[in-house]
Amino acid sequence: MAVQDKDLQGKTVVITGASNGIGAVAAERLAERGATVAVVGRNPERTAQVADKIGAAHFLADFARLDDVRKLADQLLGRFPQIDVLVNNAGGSWAERAVTADGNERTFQVNHLGGFLLTALLLERLQAAPQPRVINTSSVTYRTAKLNLDTANAPTGSFSMLGSYAGSKLANIVFTRELARRTASTALVTAAFHPGAVATNVYDNIPFGVGALIRSPLSRPFFIRPEKGAEPMVHLVTTPDAAAINGKYFHRFKEEPPSVKQAVDPAFAEQLWDLSEQLTGVSYQR
Predict the structure, then answer these.
(1) Residue 104: its pLDDT value, please?
(2) How far, in Å, are 52, 98, 225, 247 from residue 85 at the CA level?
(3) pTM for the whole structure
(4) Tens digits of per-residue pLDDT, 136-151?
(5) Collapsing DSSP states into helix, strand and coil, what is residue 40?
(6) How far, in whole angstroms, is CA 265 from its chain's centroid?
(7) Stretches in the chain below the pLDDT threshold 70
(8) Distance separating alpha carbons of residues 80 and 178, to the nearest angstrom
(9) Closest Cα to residue 34, out of 238, 194, 208, 187?
(10) Among 87, 88, 84, CA closest to 36
């Protein structure tokens, strides 16, 4: 894929989950192409290191605290008069259920509600840009999900690490499709993608040191490196063919019509949207 010299000059790109992994790689590559990149992360040292390396501003936010997301939005709006792209990449997976200070199940909040809230708070600024985009990092694990909205955010009950993660990644796809539908009369373009099986810190919370093993050279036959995993993210941010990606989900670079019924169910999308507004306290314009 040819890289144009400084073709993103004058554009501002916000990337959450950019303190390591594919977010950090994408931040560097987009900065090389001339973009002003806002590096958002949870870890102060790593986030600052990524930002310093590319000469970018960095912002701290833990998506397990919705007040952090609200503060982040205020900081971004105060810093950047134009925001062209928001990449909702922050996420994680945990072996045990935990309830956030906001009263939400942690995986559901970090992987879905945080991005839903940040997008809402930045939407007006995004829509003022000439070619705005919202790109959401999902996962192929959505294929195994069945998202029960009565229990997805429950503070108690049975819990599956993979089930919770897969459900949140399904929510990313539903959010992408519904956001595209609700903003169809505007210039906003949105897409979701699976980066591949990438060896990153997202696996750190798996028991028995599995995360460290995945990031080690031993995993190379099974997991790609972040440098390769970032490629679809960079592509969706930069591709000039906006109509070809809007509202769609990509398995790396290949468009994949969602194979789970809930992902394409308009009634379910409406219910998830209503629940997400209720839990975050925001209301998107219709």
Answers:
(1) 97
(2) 21, 31, 24, 15
(3) 0.90
(4) 999 999 999 999 999 9
(5) strand
(6) 21
(7) 1-5, 198-223, 286
(8) 27
(9) 238
(10) 84
Nearest by Cα to 97 from 86, 107, 88: 107
Please give the C-alpha separations between residue 100 and each of 113, 149, 201, in angstroms, as whole numbers.
12, 17, 20
pLDDT tens-digit profile of 32-66? 999 999 999 999 999 999 999 999 999 999 999 99
Select from 124, 31, 116, 32 the least CA-distant residue to 82.
124
Known catalytic residues?
Answer: 165
Neighbour order of strands in the sheet with 36-41: 57-60, 36-41, 12-15, 85-88, 133-137, 189-194, 248-251, 254-255
Instruction: Evaluate whether 133 touches 236 at the Cβ level (below 8 Å).
Output: yes
Nearest to 282, CA basis, from 134, 116, 149: 116
**Predicted local confidence at residue 188, as pLDDT:** 98
Residue with tokens 């200070």: 101
Buried residues in 269-286 as b, exposed as e (16+ CB within 10 A) = beebbebbeebbebeeee
User: Would strands 254-255 and 248-251 be described as parallel, antiparallel, or unpaired?
Assistant: antiparallel
Rounded distance, CA 64 to CA 17, Å? 13
Q: Which of 186, 214, 187, 193 is nearest to 202 (CA)?
A: 214
